[in-house]
Specification:
It comes from Streptomyces spororaveus. The protein is 33% helix and 19% strand. It is of the alpha/beta class and 401 residues long.
C-alpha cells in the first residue's frame, strides 16, 4: 500500500448501551459484561431483549433544535463531539471546506418514522410533525453533524447494512488520500430498536431472546442494539503539523459483495475471505502480521460458522479473536465504527477483550476466541470485520500508533 493512503486516528467517541462515553463502553467490553435486558417497548413480540442507550445528555444536544432530533442524530452528535474533543479540534478554528463527514447506518430516523406513522393512523395528517422528514431521512444524521460543526467539505452517507460503518471508514480514508480533505469525521449511528424492525428480524430467525453468545456452541441469534461510534481521521502530515497525538493508524481497507443471497452469507464465505485478503494486500501486510481480530461475530448460527472458517483459512496462525456484540448487542449499521473504535483501544492497551456469553466455541471452529476475561496480548496490527445483508463485506486494518 502506498503510505499516502494511510490515515491516522486522532480522536474517538462512543455512545452505547454500556455508557454514553468512551470509558463506560470500554470498561463493559473489557469486562465482558452483557448489556442486554428485557425491553418494555417490545412487550408482546416474540423477542423482547434489546441493548438500549441509557439517558443521554451532552452539551452539543442542548443547542436550539436539539430536542427535536431523532435519537440516531443525537447519538451521532454526542459521539462526534467526544471524538473532536479528544482530537483537540475546535470547529471554530478550522477551515470547514477541508473537513469531510462520512456517516454509516441502516434505518435512519426509525423512531421518528414510528411516531409519525402512529399519528397519521390515529389522528390524521395534520398531526404529523413538519419535522418528520428531517428526522427520518437517512442522510440527516450526516447533515446534522455538518451543520452543528461547520463542515462544508464532502458530507456523505453510506448504507451497506451491517457493514455500513466500516464502509464509511474506507470512504473517508479515500477522501483524505485523494486530497479532498485534511480531516474526516466518521460516524456510525443506529437507533433502530422499534417494534416493526424487531419483528422483521425475528421473522427471519435472526434474534435471540436469551442473549448474545458469539461463536458459542449454543448461540441462537443476536440481540438488537442502538448506539453510535465516531472516529476522527486525518492525513498524517496534517496531524503532525498541529502536533496531534495519533491513537492508531488506518492502514488498509477492502470491500466486496457476495452476489449470492439478499440476507444469507455465501456458504463458503468467498466474499468475506476476498475482503480480508484484499485489505491485507492494501495494507502491504501478510496474514501472519495480524495480531488479533475484531470479528463481525453476530451470534447467529450461519454467520459465525462461516466467519470462523474464513479466519481459519486466511489466518492459520490463529490470532486471538473477539466480538463486542456479546457485550453491546448488534448495533447494525453503527457496528463497524463502534468496533473499529474498540479495536483502537485494544491496540493501545495491548489487550484483547473477552467475548461475552462465550462458554465453549461451536463444533469445528478452529479459532482462538477469547472468553472469560480480557487477554493481555500486545498487537501491532488488528483487522475489524463487518458483513451485512445484501452480501456486503468490509474489512479495516488498524495498526498501533
Amino acid at each position: 500500500m502506498s503510505r499516502r493512503r494511510e490515515a491516522v486516528v486522532t480522536g474517538l467517541g462512543l455512545v452505547t448501551a454500556a455508557g454514553c462515553d468512551r470509558d463506560g463502553t470500554w470498561s463493559a467490553v473489557r469486562a465482558g459484561r452483557s448489556t442486554a435486558s428485557p425491553d418494555p417497548a417490545l412487550e408482546g413480540l416474540p423477542v423482547t431483549l434489546s441493548c438500549r442507550v441509557p439517558e443521554l445528555d451532552h452539551p452539543v444536544l442542548r443547542r436550539r433544535g436539539g430536542a427535536r432530533l431523532d435519537p440516531v442524530a443525537r447519538f451521532g452528535l454526542a459521539a462526534v463531539a467526544q471524538a473532536l474533543d479528544q482530537a483537540g479540534l475546535d470547529p471554530r478554528d478550522w477551515d470547514g471546506s477541508r473537513v469531510a463527514v462520512v456517516t454509516g447506518g441502516g434505518f435512519g430516523g426509525a423512531r421518528t418514522q414510528e411516531t409519525a406513522q402512529a399519528r397519521l393512523a390515529e389522528h390524521g395528517p395534520e398531526f404529523v410533525s413538519p419535522y418528520f422528514l428531517t428526522g427520518y431521512l437517512t442522510n440527516m444524521m450526516c447533515a446534522n453533524i455538518a451543520l452543528h460543526f461547520g463542515v462544508t467539505g464532502p458530507a456523505l452517507f453510506t448504507s451497506t447494512a451491517c457493514a455500513s460503518g466500516t464502509t464509511a471508514l474506507g470512504l473517508a480514508r479515500d477522501l483524505l488520500a485523494t486530497g479532498q480533505c485534511d480531516i474526516a469525521i466518521v460516524c456510525g449511528s443506529e437507533a433502530g430498536v422499534t417494534r416493526l424492525n424487531v419483528t422483521g428480524f425475528a421473522q427471519l430467525g435472526a434474534l435471540s431472546d436469551t442473549g448474545s453468545r458469539p461463536f458459542d456452541g449454543t448461540r441462537d441469534g443476536f440481540v438488537i442494539a442502538e448506539g453510535a461510534g465516531a472516529l476522527v481521521l486525518e492525513r498524517p502530515g496534517h496531524a503532525a503539523a498541529r502536533a496531534a497525538r495519533p491513537l492508531a493508524r488506518l492502514i488498509g481497507y477492502a470491500a466486496t459483495t457476495d452476489a449470492h443471497h439478499l440476507v444469507a452469507p455465501h456458504p463458503e464465505g468467498r466474499g468475506a475471505e476476498q475482503a480480508v485478503r484484499a485489505a491485507l494486500v492494501d495494507a502491504d501486510l501478510g496474514p501472519g502480521d495480524v495480531g488479533h481480530v475484531n470479528a463481525h461475530g453476530t451470534s447467529t448460527r450461519q454467520n459465525d460458522d462461516i466467519e470462523a472458517a474464513v479466519l481459519r483459512r486466511v489466518l492459520p496462525h490463529r490470532p486471538p479473536v473477539t466480538s463486542a456484540k456479546g457485550t453491546l448487542g448488534h448495533t447494525l449499521g453503527a457496528a463497524g465504527v463502534i468496533e473499529a473504535a474498540l479495536t483502537v483501544l485494544a491496540l493501545a492497551e495491548g489487550t484483547v477483550p473477552p467475548t461475552a456469553g462465550l462458554r465453549a466455541t461451536g463444533t469445528g471452529m478452529d479459532i482462538d476466541v477469547v472468553g472469560g476475561t480480557a487477554r493481555n496480548h500486545p498487537s501491532s496490527v488488528a483487522i475489524s470485520n463487518s458483513f451485512g445483508f445484501g452480501g456486503h463485506n468490509a474489512v479495516a486494518v488498524l495498526a498501533r500508533a
